[in-house]
Amino acid sequence: MAPLVLIVDDDALLCSMLQIALKRNGYESHVALSGKEALEYLENNRVSLLLLDVMMADMDGFGVMQRVREHPVYHDLPIIMLTAHADPVTRQRGLAFGANDYLVKPVTPDRIVESIHAVMPTPDSDPL
């Protein structure tokens, strides 16, 4: 079974593009358009990695990450923050909260997949 990536971002178009890139690289994916939706999904599904935006309406990415890091099953889940916040303070905060990587939008799908490969094993995949 392919690794499952949970994409947590309130930008539906970006999520669709990410799902295409992930599928081409051997990953399954699911989209949560809010932090609350992501946490609910995690309660009922086993995921391999979290792609997490910072700015969302109901709960920011830091709140989601804190809850994930406190969860007995997901405390070691690889998390890549994917955000428009380019400032060094927010980046340091993300890494201090436990993000495995911090990518600033706009970012290419190839760079995102490269980051995923760096923080978790690569599945069998067909080249792009």
Structural write-up:
By secondary structure, this protein is α/β, with parallel strands linked by helices. It has one domain: Rossmann fold (3-Layer(aba) Sandwich). Helix content is 42%, strand content 18%. It contains 5 helices and 5 strands. The chain has helices at 12-24, 35-44, 61-70, 88-97, 109-119; strands at residues 4-8, 28-32, 49-52, 79-83, 101-104. The protein has a 5-stranded parallel beta sheet with strand order 2-1-3-4-5, sandwiched between helices. The longest helix has 13 residues, at 12-24. The mean pLDDT is 90.
Overall helicity: 40-55%
Q: How are the strands ordered across the major sheet?
A: 2-1-3-4-5
Low-confidence stretches: none
Within CATH, the superfamily carries the name Response regulator
> What's the architecture, going by CATH?
3-Layer(aba) Sandwich
Question: Biggest sheet: strands, sense, closure?
Answer: 5 strands, parallel
Output the structural class: alpha/beta
- How many angstroms does the end-to-end distance come to? 20 Å
SSE order, one letter for each helix or strand: EHEHEHEHEH
Overall pLDDT: 90
CATH class: Alpha Beta
Number of helices: 5
